[in-house]
Amino acid sequence: MRSPNLTTRQQIMALLREQLHSARDLAAVLSIPEREVENHLTHVMRSLGRNSQLRFMMEHAFCHRCGFLFRERSRLTRPSRCPRCRSEDIASPRFGVEGRTPKGAKVS
Ligand SMILES: [Zn+2]
To answer: What's the pLDDT score for residue 108?
Structure first.
């Protein structure tokens, strides 16, 4: 379901603010190739680096079999195989956008 009033990137931002999504989820929702989603996510991540209100979140991919966490991985799509146990049952990395705590605000 695509809204004609928003750009793809704006739609991705809106989706990421609601909850965590993998690149594959976003590709399915927006009916665009996963590689295109990855491209948009890279830009979103870069632009949010300079944003004082919002923060880009990334949940690392992990292996379902042995629990290996792909901490070092910078690519946004799912790794094909676990380097530790060789399993191909890998959970996709997921992304989200959340508000930053404003400077000087009291944490309740
Ligand atoms: Zn593994």
So the answer is: 54
